[in-house]
From TrEMBL:
SUPFAM superfamilies: Cupredoxins. Residues 1-26 form the signal peptide. The keyword S-adenosyl-L-methionine does not apply. It comes from Bradyrhizobium ontarionense. Keywords: Signal. Residues 12-112 form the EfeO-type cupredoxin-like domain. The lineage of its organism: Bacteria, Pseudomonadati, Pseudomonadota, Alphaproteobacteria, Hyphomicrobiales. Gene3D superfamilies: Cupredoxins - blue copper proteins. Pfam families: Cupredoxin_1 (PF13473). This is Cupredoxin domain-containing protein.
Length: 113
């Protein structure tokens, strides 16, 4: 194979990798949750097994929220009237609870199928 042919093959591979790069990010599942009156809305949501999960949490209340899940391994504070983004690795099928550590009665469930 000549140097020109090798360069063409390398360029074709790079082009294919660039073309399929959006598919990798499309494999994420985005879940939008809001917190209003110290309640998650919705309180239960679903996600497919085996894909990374991105939580977009909008705190519509006047006090901070500590969005936390021990089984999903995250904990973050979201300031009043702000939004937080939490990325979670792909999960196996099951039910995963999350809560607001500042308002213990505020709980929710992620159902992975």
């Amino acid at each position: 194979m000549t140097l020109i042919q090798k360069a063409q093959v390398g360029g074709a591979i790079a082009l294919l990798m660039t073309a399929f790069a959006p598919l990798a990010s499309a494999a994420e599942t985005t879940i939008e949750i809001s917190v209003k009156d110290n309640k998650f809305q919705p309180a239960e949501m679903k996600a497919p097994a085996g894909t990374p999960i991105v939580f977009k949490v909008k705190n519509l209340d006047g006090s901070p929220v500590e969005f936390e899940s021990e089984p999903l391994e995250f904990e973050t504070v979201i300031k009043p009237n702000m939004e937080g983004v939490i990325k979670v690795k792909a999960q196996k099928p099951g039910r995963y609870e999350f809560f607001d550590d500042f308002h213990q009665g505020n709980k929710g469930t992620l159902v992975v199928e």
